[in-house]
Amino acid sequence: MFKEVHTVLPAADLKRAQSFYHDALDLDPAEVHDGFLVYRLDSGNAFEIYETSNAGTAKNTQIGWVTDDLDGEMTRLRTRGVVFEDYDIPGMKTVNGVATMDEMKSAWFRDTEGNFVCVSEML
């Protein structure tokens, strides 16, 4: 059986990505290796960022976090320079960067490497 899961994100510039995750998200890597970083959250979850020329090519959500206060988190991130995406597509429209669905509300932004990051609050 699988024991855990974690996300792996691409970065064209690993130093730039590390700066963004530190400055905007207040996250620092638990491990720094040649060509990749490992981040570990207090929850026990982890994700990696690795250097590759493929960064920024995905058009889908690549990592998502859950928070108890989406509005507060968005305010905090905006003060750190994060810009939230706006969507108006069939089945989803954002208002001030937030899409409200039956059981959650979510907001998306891109990191410096073009990865789509989602922050959600369960309702």
From TrEMBL:
Entries under Gene3D superfamilies matching the protein: 2,3-Dihydroxybiphenyl 1,2-Dioxygenase, domain 1
Domain called VOC: residue spans: 3-122
Protein name: VOC family protein
InterPro entries assigned: Glyas_Bleomycin-R_OHBP_Dase, Glyas_Fos-R_dOase_dom, VOC_core
Superkingdom: Bacteria
